[in-house]
Specification:
Length: about 210
């Protein structure tokens, strides 16, 4: 798999959609769709983000890479598991910033693993807290792309607690991958590095709630 990441990254950077698709299909011959996403798409996008950060790429290349990958991921997302687990009441949201891919993958993997959860799309703090409480959530999964959004999780957690609701907050996304302490600093109950970890965390929380 490692040897596919560099050519996949190059194909994205040069906006070669056909080559990117061919390399993704090659990965699918030896791994499941989610493995291909987590071991090929995610590392390539991480490298592209780092290259943009150090001035080697234009933001337009980052943007188009994200769009290509969204289409690839969308084409292989796993179907829902018919044997749904209805507990605990859960939702997933993108807090404040503008991205979709991480949330979409986590949502899809959760559903494929049998969990039913609300997809709140993208919300800001006040709207999110109101909705989470109105829906009587037990678990709120928050995905963020940039640090300012990650810091807003603190407001979400304190407002939820301030209103007396018992909702476990699970976070994920780039800022939490960069700083392993950040999830605790913003008052979250757990942080996941990947979609697979999201499932493990919710299963663990379900055990603790019983
Ligand atoms: C693609 C991308 C974009 C695209 C997004 C397109 C889209 N529709 O999604 C565009 C071009 C729009 C963009 C814009 C910006 N970006 Co950008 N972007 C990226 C990039 C390259 C990849 C992100 C991505 O989609 N990765 C793939 C997904 C699948 O990974 P993921 O989100 O991390 O999700 C996985 C895990 O984190 C986890 N997970 C995610 N959510 C959750 C939730 C839970 C509950 C759990 C358990 C797990 C979990 O599971 C997922 C699957 O494995 C990253 C680089 C990086 N290292 O992440 C930079 C990056 C995130 N961007 C960055 C920046 C700064 C920006 C901009 C501010 C740039 C600018 N100056 O305008 C804007 C901000 C836009 C905004 N306000 O929202 C920085 C953030 C730095 C920081 N510490 O805050 C990064 C890290 C680049 C860098 N190295 O500097 N970006």
């Amino acid at each position: 798999m490692q040897q596919l990441v560099a050519p996949f990254q190059e194909s994205l950077e040069s906006l070669d959609r056909i080559k990117a698709n061919a390399l993704f299909q090659e990965a699918l011959t030896t791994m499941t769709p989610i493995e291909a996403v987590e071991q090929l798409v995610v590392p390539a996008l991480e490298r592209i983000g780092a290259a943009w950060h150090s001035g080697q790429l234009a933001l337009s290349q980052v943007y188009m890479s994200g769009r290509f990958c969204e289409a690839l991921v969308e084409s292989v997302l796993p179907p829902s598991d018919p044997d749904r687990k209805h507990q605990p009441r859960s939702a997933i949201v993108v807090l404040s910033d503008y991205h979709d891919l991480g949330k979409r993958i986590v949502y899809s993997v959760m559903r494929a693993s049998g969990f039913e959860l609300f997809d709140y799309g993208r919300l800001d703090v006040d709207e999110l807290v109101d909705r989470a409480i109105a829906d009587k959530l037990r678990v709120l999964m928050i995905s963020v792309l940039i640090l300012p959004s990650a810091l807003k999780v603190k407001q979400v957690c304190s407002r939820i607690k301030g209103r007396g609701a018992n909702i476990k907050v699970v976070v994920g996304g780039a800022p939490f991958l960069f700083d392993s302490q950040l999830w605790q600093e913003v008052g979250a109950d757990a942080m996941g590095n990947s979609a697979a970890e999201a499932v493990e965390i919710v299963e663990r929380l379900m055990g603790e709630m019983q």
